[in-house]
Amino acid sequence: MAEAHAAPNAELLEWPKKDKRRFLHVVYRVGDLDRTIKFYTECFGMKLLRKRDIPEEKYSNAFLGFGSEETNFVVELTYNYGVSSYDIGTGFGHFAISTPDVYKLVEDIRAKSGVITREPGPVKGGQSIIAFVKDPDGYIFELIQRGPTPEPLCQVMLRVGDLDRSIKFYERALGMRVVKKVDKPEYKYTLAMLGYAEEHETTVLELTYNYGVTEYTKGDAYAQIAIGTDDVYKSAEVVSLVTQELGGKITRQPGPIPGLNTKITSFLDPDGWKTVLVDNEDFLKELHKE
Ligand SMILES: N[C@@H](CCC(=O)N[C@@H](CS)C(=O)NCC(=O)O)C(=O)O
């Protein structure tokens, strides 16, 4: 019986690597949409790409980024009517923005009253120049010094309790590959960058394991990363198989969102971090409709 299933599953498990995958956006909640839009446009130089209000559901969204949503990873801010603050929890790490001159960007941000939580300088135990900035809701943005890139919004960092398990999950369930792995025993952490292309070409998911820490709080602020796929149904079948082995679970079976008709599926990884897979064609239709 086990043998009879081995071949079809083996073929199915190849699907995420053959699929057309791309990081679309990261979704999180903010207490004041206009305040965050002002901060991201004035301090980071992002553009406001679109806004939508869904009064029936009592929320609004704003999409901001460094390029068109057709090609770039962007942030999707959610404002829930009447909710002015959220708990970010201890598991969320940061978003990252690359810039050719971190020192200059930090001075510009400081001049606009932005909060710098880590002054520019070489990363502990390394050479990259970094700084940390806190946005109005308390989300941390790492600024990383790098040459020009098509994707300045370059990382989402989340903390995980078992890095090998997470790497297996994102490789098998999502078809990502490890583009960098660094162990810093002197600072007691290991990190892995996972994605669909090299770090300087695209956004990566940075997973951090702090020695001995297996649990974090999730709060209610950060929501999920959305990734494009050509087939949500097949993709969900793969995720379902992988969760049986590594943990995590499907939280939304694949299918169209009522009213919107965009096909999606969503699931949690073994640490409880959520990913949404969105049909590539439906996503483009949605963009052109608005
Ligand atoms: N304990 C850290 C481990 C990750 C870490 O230290 N990352 C580096 C960046 S890759 C960092 O934040 N360094 C701080 C610094 O250089 O000041 C955490 O969970 O955030």
From TrEMBL:
UniProt cofactor note: Binds 1 zinc ion per subunit. In the homodimer, two zinc ions are bound between subunits.
Membrane-spanning segments: none
Domain called VOC: residue spans: 22-146, 152-280
A Pfam family this chain is assigned to: Glyoxalase
Catalytic residues (positions): E142 (proton donor/acceptor)
Catalytic activity: (R)-S-lactoylglutathione = methylglyoxal + glutathione
Molecular function via GO: lactoylglutathione lyase activity; metal ion binding
Cofactor: Zn(2+)
Keywords tagged on the record: Lyase, Metal-binding, Repeat, Zinc
Cellular component aspect of the GO annotation: cytoplasm
SUPFAM superfamilies, A to Z: Glyoxalase/Bleomycin resistance protein/Dihydroxybiphenyl dioxygenase
Pathways per UniProt: Secondary metabolite metabolism; methylglyoxal degradation; (R)-lactate from methylglyoxal: step 1/2
One annotated GO biological process: methylglyoxal catabolic process to D-lactate via S-lactoyl-glutathione
Positions with a binding annotation for Zn(2+): E76, H94, E142
Biological role stated in the UniProt entry: Catalyzes the conversion of hemimercaptal, formed from methylglyoxal and glutathione, to S-lactoylglutathione.
Family: Belongs to the glyoxalase I family.
Protein name: Lactoylglutathione lyase
Organism: Quercus rubra (Northern red oak)
